[in-house]
Amino acid sequence: MPHEIDLRSDTVTKPTPEMRRVMAEAEVGDDVYGEDPTVNRLEALAARRLGKEAGLFVATGTMGNQVAIMTHTQRGDEIIVESDSHIFMYEVGATAVFSGAQIRQVPGAGGVLNPSGVEAAIRENDIHAPRTSLLCLENTHNRAGGTVTPVQRMRELYGVAKRHGMAVHLDGARVFNAAVALGVDAKEIAAWTDSVQFCLSKSLAAPIGSVIVGSKDWIDRARKNRKMMGGGMRQAGIIAAAGIVALEKMVDRLAEDHENARLLAENLAEVRGLRIDMNTVQTNMVFVDVSGTGMTADQFSLAGLEYGVKFNPSDPMKVRFVTHKDVTREDVLEAVKVVRRIAGGRQ
Ligand SMILES: *Cc1c(COP(=O)(O)O)cnc(C)c1O
């Protein structure tokens, strides 16, 4: 059997040899005392890359988003998110648990929020109403297909939030994919936010970790909230070291993942029984509706497994493919063959 091709997520990427080497050799200290030079270097680098004053290394993207929400809100506040956002869909209700805030879902188009839709959802200053204190954006948007919110739209949404005295947090788990797809510096996206969370552990291939960035004062408060959640880590430089390599070496190669996703989508779109909305194929994800094959997404994914090609069901009738550094162009073409065979099987 040929080697396994894992297209379930970009979280499955393995650290590079350079990452393993710098991890072994990392200079470390106790980060709760602020004494881990490698963590400090990663946090400063992340802040610089996003054009913010300061950064905070956190264990996961979920922790980063939730520390950010907690730092921006008070109990009883309402926060606005896109209906299908990761914060609403996949963070185990954490916003209710940690921040005591309630979530207002506003539907976007292809994961992109509309300024007037957001404005209409902001509460009036009324004795009955919660205070709307935070707008959360997601760029790229995961469930919408890895879609990109353009800089101009970020700017308009930021403008709406500021007119209403609200903060803006970007769930930028894949903000570098967005920047590469738009051909801009990630700073230009982050300029229209107060805080950003981005993942080192996804397309950038580090084994663990995310960073949140924002103003110095905001990060000081976030650091305390991270400690409260149990996220004060000690010689974390061992993992931060890989994060530095991720930021310095792994961003520019994302264009290759985007090309591979497009190649995959274009080929699968030709297969009878499969449907792909090509407008959503903008970065490293491809969502495929398999209902025309007579199989469910679960059945389709299980069939892939038998051929050593892994991808995830994302809905009852949709499967998701994600390209990343451990998937080559040849792997993509091999996956196309396998998927074509599976789709053909039931016709
Ligand atoms: C993966 C992801 C997260 C959470 O990251 P974890 O490290 O898995 O907790 C948050 N937001 C988006 C959009 C994601 O894709």
Layout: helices, strands, pairs:
Blueprint: E1 5-6, H1 17-25, H2 37-50, E2 54-58, H3 61-72, E3 78-82, H4 86-89, H5 94-99, E4 102-106, H6 115-121, E5 132-138, H7 151-163, E6 167-171, H8 175-182, H9 186-190, E7 195-199, E8 210-214, H10 216-228, H11 237-249, H12 254-269, E9 285-289, H13 297-306, E10 309-310, E11 312-315, E12 318-322, H14 329-345
Parallel strand pairs: 1-10, 3-4, 3-5, 5-6, 6-7
Antiparallel strand pairs: 2-8, 7-8, 9-12, 11-12
Helix pairs in contact: 1-11, 2-11, 3-10, 6-7, 12-14
The protein binds pyridoxal-5'-phosphate.
Pyridoxal-5'-phosphate is lined by residues 60-62, 65, 86, 138, 142, 171, 173, 199, 201, 210.
Q: How would you summarize this macromolecular structure in one to three sentences?
A:
With 347 residues, this protein is an alpha/beta fold. It is 42% helix and 16% strand.
Describe this structure as you would to a colleague.
The protein has helices at 17-25, 37-50, 61-72, 86-89, 94-99, 115-121, 151-163, 175-182, 186-190, 216-228, 237-249, 254-269, 297-306, 329-345, and strands at 5-6, 54-58, 78-82, 102-106, 132-138, 167-171, 195-199, 210-214, 285-289, 309-310, 312-315, 318-322. With 347 residues, the protein is α/β, with parallel strands linked by helices. The chain folds into two domains: 5-12 and 253-345, Aspartate Aminotransferase, domain 1 (Alpha-Beta Complex); 17-249, Aspartate Aminotransferase, domain 2 (3-Layer(aba) Sandwich), CATH 3.40.640.10. The strands form three sheets. The chain has a seven-stranded mixed sheet, sandwiched between helices. The protein has a three-stranded antiparallel sheet with strand order 9-12-11, covered by helices on one side. α1 (17-25) runs antiparallel to α11 and α12 (254-269) packs parallel to α14 (329-345). The two termini are 25 Å apart. Bound molecules: pyridoxal-5'-phosphate. Pyridoxal-5'-phosphate (PLP) is lined by residues 60-62, 65, 86, 138, 142, 171, 173, 199, 201, 210.
